[in-house]
Amino acid sequence: MPVVVPVKFAFASRDLWFDPQGIDVLAGDHAICSTERGTEIGLVTADPFDVPASELAAPLKPVLRVASDEDLDHADDLARMGEDAMYDFRRLVEQNELDMKPVGVEYLFGGEKAVFYFAAEDRVDFRQLVRDLSAFFHIRVDMRQIGVRDETRLIGGYATCGQELCCARFGGQFEPVSIRMAKEQDLPLNSSKISGVCGRLMCCLRYEFEAYKDFKSRAPKKKAIIDTPLGKARVQEYNTPREELILRLESGKVFRVSLADMTCSDSCKKKSAESGCSSCRPDCVTRDVLEKIESPDIALALLELDRERGVDVGDGLDRADRIVASGPTPRRRRMREEEAAKFGGGAAADKPKAAKSAKAKQAKAVESAPEGATPRRRRRRNAGEAAEQAAQQGQQRTSTQGQRGPARSQASDQQAQPSRRRRRHLSGEERDDAFRAAAMRDEVKRASKASEDKGEGASTKSRRKHTAQKPDVPSVAEQLSSGKVKVTRRRPGDGGGVAAEKKSPAPQDGSRQDAAPDQQAQKRRRRRRSRKPKQDGGASNGDGASSSAE
How far apart, in whole angstroms, are the C-alpha atoms of residue 251 and residue 115? Predict the structure, then answer.
């Protein structure tokens, strides 16, 4: 098998193979090679390797030697000469009025000739230009027309992605790029977004075309119906780099699922077997796949599905998140005893015994209490007993009102009122009793107030705070009937009644007095100036008419 070494030249679109001829050349070295155009210098891109003879289309050209420091300096001088020649190249093109764009000038390493590169849309007759260039540079001239892609590769630059241009970075032979590749990758068909610097379709459209094509051949089509435990779902979008599908349920929930996790139903397999298709597109998502998805919406939907099917799923909380009471509360214990008493049982039979024992303990405590000490009240009392006790206390207060002072009665009232903690909703009879007790307390208060006004009970001082009372002011009706207030009718122009009061003061006895006709002022009429123009220098009289002056 022949041994070859690839070499990259500055103005070449791809690497060329050469025969190393036993020269120790490695990747990264600069080599002097013999080509069809002459002697050139290039960069070795890889170490020598063997290739089959069938892959060689023509005999290999030899590698002359590895470039030395003098060869590299000479190559730099030739590159500077090519850059300086671009100015004269553009000048001569404009002088000959040719429709072409100068791109670059390359001087061969051996000095055989100079290659002038240009870009043009159509064929150009450059015979006169070749004569002018040969006469000016005194060298053999070779004209080479290139396309816009090669032009962009030679000039170089950066693409919209921020990376170096693919044609300048990777090189290689340009392969055709079609608009079908952009459609297959679901890209917007906007020329400004899918076109490169050269104005043609971007080269990178071809890099991922095969991956998109393979994924779409295995995945279900867009807007296809997929069966899931939560109902029907529709394929909404693809994520080709990760090979995922975005599905949307009928309830509106959206989730992602991998293509490898989807399965084919029996009907799908049967249909593909009948049609003779080797592989079928998956159309089903199992519950195991949904449980792997880290989505709270999907987890709640699965819990609701289990509840509808009668599966005991609990409250959906972890054991560490639950709050468990240490034992039944007193209220819960009392409710249980009441239920047991209602339906019968051991607890109901033991309840009367417990009540009797409690009453016996209470009686024993009363007997053992010292004389003069009042027994402690029970914490809970029935509403009927409270109302009866309040009525009895009210009757005792009315019977012994003359003997006790108002301070003592107020203290008893405060003692008779139940505390707020014991208050509860009263029945109709209990409410009536409470109203009667309140009425009796009001009577007692009024009686105590009357006794204080008469001087009774002066020895006992009231502990109540005296509140400021409003002064007794007669109503408007009483003031009108007594004649203290007189209502006068307001007329326009009387200054709110002030002028009328000054002219005719109201009599002291409140009787109405008729004014004399000669004392009443005539109502002055408002003069209205005539809009007619004055004639003969006349002046307007009192009637408003114009008259001539004598």
Answer: 69
Q: Which amino acid is at 299?
A: A
Residue 183 makes CB contacts below 8 A (sequence gap 6+) with 189
Within 8 A by CB and 6+ apart from 261, the residues are: 285, 289, 292
Tokens coding 264: 């084919």
- Taking only the tens place, the pLDDT of each residue in 240-289 is 989 999 999 998 899 999 999 998 888 888 887 887 776 788 889 999 99
368-415 residue pLDDT tens: 555 544 445 554 555 555 556 666 665 665 555 444 444 444 444 444
- Asked if residues 272 and 280 have their Cβ atoms less than 8 Å apart, the reply is yes
Picking from 62, 100, 104, the residue whose alpha carbon sits closest to that of residue 83 is: 104
3-state secondary structure of 460: coil
Report how far residue 357's alpha carbon sits from residue 365's, in angstroms, rounded to the nearest whole number: 12
Determine whether 33 is exposed, middle or buried from the number of CB atoms within 10 Å of its CB (0-12, 13-18, 19+): buried
Q: Which residues pair with 63 in a beta bridge?
A: 33
Q: What are phi and psi of 263, to 5 degrees?
A: -125, 170
Q: What is the pLDDT of residues 9-51, one digit of tens each?
A: 888 878 889 998 888 888 999 999 999 888 999 999 999 999 8
Query: In this structure, what token pair is assigned to residue 474?
Result: 């007669």
Two structure tokens written together for 461? 């001082």
Task: Determine whether 361 is exposed, middle or buried from the number of CB atoms within 10 Å of its CB (0-12, 13-18, 19+).
Answer: exposed
- Domain positions in the chain are 3-67, 73-146, 220-308
Please state, in angstroms and rounded to a whole number, the distance separating the CA atoms of residues 397 and 444: 8
222 Cβ neighbours under 8 A, 6+ residues apart? 235, 236, 237, 238
Task: Provide the 8-state DSSP code for 204.
Answer: G
- Residue 11 exposed, middle or buried by CB count within 10 Å (0-12, 13-18, 19+): middle
Give ∠ CA 95-99-105 in degrees, rounded to 5.
75
Separation CA 346–CA 344 (nearest Å) = 7
SS3 425: coil
DSSP line for 248-269: EETTS-EEEEEGGG-B--HHHH
